[in-house]
Amino acid sequence: MIRFPPNFVTLAQLWRKSRCFQLVGSKLPHSKMSVDTDETHQRLKAAVHYTVGRLCQKVGEEHRREFSRQVVAAIAETAFRQCDVFAKDLEAFARHAKRSTVNAEDVKLVARRSTALSIYIQNKSEELTQEQRDLKKKSTGKRKSRDTEEDSRE
Amino acid sequence: TYTVHYYVLCLQDTISKLLSSLFKEDKTKLSGDAVLLMAEMLKVFVQEAAVRSQKQAESEDCDQVDIEHFEKILPQLVRSFNKV
């Protein structure tokens, strides 16, 4: 059972009210989406806010310091704005490669702005590729040893 | 652990819809891998923000991490994620 500090009660209520759960798993009717873009944005913002709250809570627990509601909101807002930057860059990279689908290569280019982040994302990408290769391989009885690189973090 | 996985799935779904809504063109789509990696990237961003804010609060002997701590570390954080 996950326990939240008191200031998260309102946030959870807001999140439940915005019916963010509907976004997960179930398909959003496309016709409705164009009409309710603002509402959708609000729900997405609330979902980001909720996740930021969870991550801050975890960091807070590790260092025995609570994050105020205002700072969580501020981090969430900044993260949301950063997504806008990411989205525009991703789209530009994909377009430059004459693709309409953003893929992992575009993400790696965006991550290149930070060395530590770039290494982390590169590792994650390789993990993903390896997992996909392992899944594709039919079980032949041969066991393959996996090389796992250590994440290099600052 | 079900709850943890649910939140991870929720974030990926959220990221997918969020980024899609922020693209300039309707035809731009996201591959599954891109969504996964972007969710990771956003997680790193938020964790960096949180950890740095926490360290700032610690250096100021504050019991709670507050908005002024975040504001102090924000310029460097933005710079490190948006180097040209």
From TrEMBL, chain A:
Residues 128-154 are annotated as: Disordered. GO terms for cellular component: FANCM-MHF complex. Keywords: DNA damage, DNA repair, DNA-binding. GO terms for biological process: DNA repair; replication fork processing; resolution of meiotic recombination intermediates. Residues 135-145 have a biased composition (Basic residues). It comes from the Eukaryota. InterPro entries: CENP-S/Mhf1, Histone-fold. The keyword Ligase does not apply. Transmembrane segments: none annotated. GO terms for molecular function: chromatin binding; DNA binding; protein heterodimerization activity. PANTHER family: CENTROMERE PROTEIN S (PTHR22980:SF0), CORTISTATIN (PTHR22980). Belongs to the TAF9 family. CENP-S/MHF1 subfamily. This is Centromere protein S.
UniProtKB/TrEMBL annotation, chain B:
SUPFAM superfamilies: Histone-fold (SSF47113). One of its GO terms (molecular function) is DNA binding. GO terms for biological process: DNA repair; kinetochore assembly; replication fork processing; resolution of meiotic recombination intermediates. GO terms for cellular component: FANCM-MHF complex; Fanconi anaemia nuclear complex. It is found in: Nucleus. Keywords: DNA damage, DNA repair, DNA-binding, Nucleus. InterPro entries: CENP-X, Histone-fold. Heterodimer with CENPX, sometimes called MHF; this interaction stabilizes both partners. MHF heterodimers can assemble to form tetrameric structures. MHF also coassemble with CENPT-CENPW heterodimers at centromeres to form the tetrameric CENP-T-W-S-X complex. Forms a discrete complex with FANCM and CENPX, called FANCM-MHF; this interaction, probably mediated by direct binding between CENPS and FANCM, leads to synergistic activation of double-stranded DNA binding and strongly stimulates FANCM-mediated DNA remodeling. Belongs to the CENP-X/MHF2 family. This is Centromere protein X. It comes from Stegastes partitus.
